[in-house]
Structure formats: structure tokens, C-alpha cells
UniProtKB/TrEMBL annotation:
PROSITE patterns: VOC. Keywords: Dioxygenase, Oxidoreductase. This is Glyoxalase/bleomycin resistance protein/dioxygenase. Transmembrane segments: none annotated. Pfam families: Glyoxalase (PF00903). The lineage of its organism: Bacteria, Bacillati, Actinomycetota, Actinomycetes, Frankiales. It comes from Pseudofrankia inefficax (strain DSM 45817 / CECT 9037 / DDB 130130 / EuI1c) (Frankia inefficax). It comes from the Bacteria.
Amino acid sequence: MREPGDAFHLAIPAYDLDATVAFYVGRLGCKLARRYDDRVTLDFFGDQVVCHLAEPPQDAPDVPRAEPRLYPRHFGMTFRRPEDFDALVRLVEIRKLPVFRPVELRFEGLAEEHRTLVLRDPADNLLEFKHYVDPRMMY
């Protein structure tokens, strides 16, 4: 069973480690735990995200790079307290972080009602942040 000191671990691609650190640490406020030539490890809201250096997808020269899609792959944080979600929204606005989908209310009037915001990192990884009105809906 997970203990309070345990951390969830997620590995994602990064195409430029300097841009990755600038986004996650300098703008989003995550803590840089470690940096190597081929990856950075971050404290992402209490869990561990490792950004591994990877080659960007190779598109044909005459075909624009495809827009990222939220489904089926994204990651993020579900906040238990509404003020924590609001603080993140303010941070995004102040620091002008790249928004993939602005704040929206989903499943209004249902038990699963929640606000969501989706950001886009420099490698086109999508980060979703949520707050459910009913905290029992977090899982």
C-alpha cells in the first residue's frame, strides 16, 4: 500500500532539457531533483516525473507536425482543495504558461462535476489539472 512518503513515478519524453527545466522548474514551480546529460528528475507536486531526452518525431518536410491529443495520453494533478486549483490557474495566467485547453467545467450538475485546465510542455506532453466539487470523485 502507498505510504505518505511514497511517490508515483512517471517517465515522459523531452526534446530539449533546458526548455524542459525552464518550463517545469522556472515557470510551473516544480523542484528539480536531479539533472543528467540525458534526463531530468522533477518533484511534480509530490510525485516523481522523469523527462528523458528523446528525438522529436520526424514529420515529412511538407506535412506540419500533428497537434497533440489529450486522449489517450496525458498526466497531471487532481487537487483536493479548490484554492490549490485556483492558485495554479493564477500562476498559469501570471506566467503565461502554454494552455492547451483553458479552464472548463465538466460534467456540470453530476457527481463527477469538476474544473479542468490542460497545459502543454515544450515536448507537447499534455498536463491536466483538476478539482472535483465532491472529493470522493477523485478516484
